[in-house]
Amino acid sequence: MTKTLILFRHAKSSWADDVDDHERPLAERGRKAAPVMAKWLAGKSLKPTIALVSTSRRTQETWALIAPELGKVAKRDVGEIYEAPAERILEAMHAVEPSVESLIIVGHNPGMEDLAHLLIKGDGGEAGARMRKKFPTAGIAVLDLPVDDWTEVRSHVADLADFVTPKSLISP
Predict the structure, then answer these.
(1) ω into residue 110 within 30 of 0, thus cis?
(2) Paired strand residues for 102
(3) Collapsed DSSP state (helix, strand, coil) of residue 14
(4) 129 pLDDT exceeds 70?
(5) How confident is residue 1, by pLDDT bands cut at 50, 70 and 90?
(6) Rounded to whole angstroms, how far apart are CA atoms 25 and 29?
(7) Mean pLDDT for the stretch of residues 3-30
(8) Average pLDDT for the chain
(9) pLDDT at 170
(10) Long-range contacts of 32-36 (CB under 8 A, 24+ apart)
């Protein structure tokens, strides 16, 4: 059996003065990019069953912009993945029920990028080369995992099915 993991780095956030990091909102560029990325996911029939979303404002706003394109997805707010390292995000994945076939995580770098590198086997081919160059805001990595249960996810087991960025989809 194969499970699908979608790693979605939150869209571009604002750096407004006097705002706590957890409360930073999306910038205009992020509000434009997130729906474009969601349309790409829907166009590829990548429709997750469950979403693990960091509790930060920018990830919550990103989710609000992408959710309408994805259909019915059970959202779980997970404070432990806020600014988390790859290992902590992996722990959150391990808690997902085995019946879930497709999972999206909306989180932060460097944890999202580090998790993708941790999970993919080999160099990930052409998509891996693009991902190693930069995993920008609103970037999406799609991984195929040859597991029956999320608790079986370990390092270097996933195939990197795709990696896409806003720059690759949005014309200047």
Answers:
(1) yes
(2) 4
(3) coil
(4) yes
(5) confident
(6) 11
(7) 92
(8) 94
(9) 76
(10) 32/170, 33/137, 33/138, 33/166, 33/170, 34/61, 34/62, 34/65, 34/66, 34/138, 35/65, 35/66, 35/69, 36/166, 36/169, 36/170
Neighbours of 164 (CB within 10 A): 20
Domains of the chain: 3-169 (3.40.50.1240)
Calpha distance 124→160 (Å, rounded): 5
Tokens of 60: 């919550």
Using only C-alpha atoms, the chain has a radius of gyration, in whole angstroms, of 15
pLDDT above 70 covers a percentage of the chain that reads: 98
DSSP letters along 102-116, please?
EEEEEE-TTHHHHHH
Question: 66: pLDDT confidence band, cut at 50, 70 and 90?
Answer: very high
The Cα 5–Cα 3 span in angstroms is 7
